[in-house]
Amino acid sequence: MESHGNYNQSISVNIDIYCSKNKLWKFISSPGYLNFCHPFCKHNKVIQWDNNKHCDELVYLNGIKYIRNFYKWEEKKGYSLFIGAENKQQSKVVWEINSKKNKTFLSITVYPHFLNDYPKLISFIPYKFLIRPKLTSYLNSVIGGINSYMVNKIPVERNMFGKHSWFS
């Protein structure tokens, strides 16, 4: 069975999305939505999508296949999920919608499973100089794709914000 790790370190990106909180929620809570907005998504297939359970498969452009199992679902606020290859270590991801002064913000926080089993002294350098920059770039592209779709209503192009060495 997969390990959910300790999740000591996180990487978070929070970006202003140019639409209402309700429109953003309606979009990011719809089945298969990554097909329209994720710049590194080859396809996003629903496994189960109902009131009690949400689960889908994300296949990246380079063929990596991850399962997203949602474990917390809060209407119009966001959700939390575990993502990773089936029966392997999983990373925890938290999606949150907030609004302030008539602006809507989408925040995605990833608690990567990489290096979780290593002491911080050993994991600090690879985390700071490899994992953090790569995941920050990835999250900026994902949220940028969502914003682009919400503004233009046109599916994003693959690698729209540049290629990513882990997923393109």
Per DSSP, the total helix count is: 3
Name the shape in a single word.
globular
Structural class: alpha+beta
* Strand line-up of the largest beta sheet: 1-7-6-5-4-3-2
For the largest beta-sheet, the strand count, sense and barrel status come to: 7 strands, antiparallel
Give the N-terminus to C-terminus distance in angstroms.
28 Å
Order of helices and strands: EHHEEEEEEH
Overall mean pLDDT stands at 92
Question: How many DSSP E strands?
Answer: 7
Helical percent range?
A: 25-40%
Q: How many whole angstroms does the radius of gyration measure?
A: 16 Å
Explain what the structure shows.
With 168 residues, the chain is α+β, with helices and mostly antiparallel strands. The protein contains 3 helices and 7 strands, in the order βααββββββα. It has a 7-stranded antiparallel β-sheet with strand order 1-7-6-5-4-3-2. Strand 6 and strand 7 form a beta hairpin. It is globular, with a radius of gyration of 16 Å. 25% of the residues are buried. The mean pLDDT is 92.
